[in-house]
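queue> pop job 88
queue> type: inverse folding (structure -> sequence)
queue> payload:
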């Protein structure tokens, strides 16, 4: 495998080098007071090359003015990017017509958008035609957002405020994921997250009652948005932890976990942005000599879990 591009490995501020992709359209309603025609909106997904943090912006239409407003909001909150990377429009053979227009706007900017990019000294680069593998970093982010939004929003007919709230909470959930231990101290249970690079500490969510088992016709509009976010959290957390567990073919023997490793503990009852973390204090092997059970030190005490319920952090393997 070749070396990563310099934009991926050289230390820099978050989102100084970022990939951008688009998802949609999603349909929202202008108001809950009366029935009206649904409005199409789109998502701009920004992925930081260095920290892998995600930033989501809602784009109201396919005009240059709407996209410039999206970039201004992004730069105001995350800082101006030196380089933005995106897919070549020819990669989207199967994309719908509206989304193609948005890509074409970026690929061939009109005078208004071109002047804005030039005045801000932002370099926009495109991956080679018909080579979507060059954009795997942001493609994964778009896939995540589209997959869970489509399956949880369904026919909810959300307003703009409700949709925006859900999108921003999803951004917080994704940026709360642990990626590496903060130290090698066996008594330190903290993990580095993309949120540390954005606000200097882990991202947290307000504690709210569990609403997954309550029928939607018994919920208020804002309780419905909470239920959607909780549904996305439980689905995404489960899939993310499963992806961290190595299931490659056994070409050579490899230990599952080691003493003092900081690991994620699978738990279906945790609220959004809350992750179970622990240090391995002792490993218990089975009759075959393989690691089967681990005794863990956590911030609240000592627990015992099967190795299949533990996930080594992605940058600690």
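queue> result:
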């Amino acid at each position: 495998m070749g070396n990563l591009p310099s934009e991926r490995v050289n230390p820099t501020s978050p989102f100084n080098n970022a990939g951008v992709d688009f998802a949609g359209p999603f349909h929202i309603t202008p108001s809950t007071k009366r029935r009206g025609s649904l409005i199409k909106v789109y998502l701009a997904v920004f992925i930081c090359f260095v920290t892998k943090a995600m930033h989501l912006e809602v784009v109201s239409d396919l005009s240059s003015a709407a996209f410039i407003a999206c970039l201004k909001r992004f730069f105001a909150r995350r800082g101006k990017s030196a380089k933005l990377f995106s897919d070549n429009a020819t990669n989207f053979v199967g994309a719908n017509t509206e989304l193609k227009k948005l890509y074409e706007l970026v690929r061939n900017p009109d005078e208004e958008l071109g002047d804005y990019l030039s005045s801000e000294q932002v370099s926009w680069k495109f991956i080679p035609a018909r080579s979507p593998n060059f954009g795997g970093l942001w493609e994964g982010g778009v896939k995540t957002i589209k997959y869970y939004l489509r399956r949880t929003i369904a026919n909810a007919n959300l307003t703009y405020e409700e949709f925006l709230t859900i999108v921003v909470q999803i951004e917080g959930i994704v940026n709360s994921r642990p990626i590496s231990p903060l130290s090698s101290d066996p008594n330190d249970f903290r993990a580095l997250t993309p949120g540390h690079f954005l606000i200097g500490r882990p991202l947290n969510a307000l504690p709210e009652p569990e609403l997954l088992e309550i029928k939607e016709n018994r919920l208020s509009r804002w309780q419905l948005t909470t239920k959607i976010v909780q549904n996305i959290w439980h689905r995404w957390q489960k899939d993310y932890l499963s992806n961290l567990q190595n299931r490659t073919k056994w070409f050579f023997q490899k230990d599952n976990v080691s003493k003092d490793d900081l690991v994620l503990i699978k738990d279906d009852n945790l609220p959004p942005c809350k992750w179970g973390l622990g240090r391995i204090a002792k490993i218990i092997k089975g009759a075959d000599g393989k690691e089967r059970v681990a005794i863990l030190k956590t911030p609240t005490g000592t627990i015992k879990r099967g190795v299949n319920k533990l996930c080594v952090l992605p940058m600690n393997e």
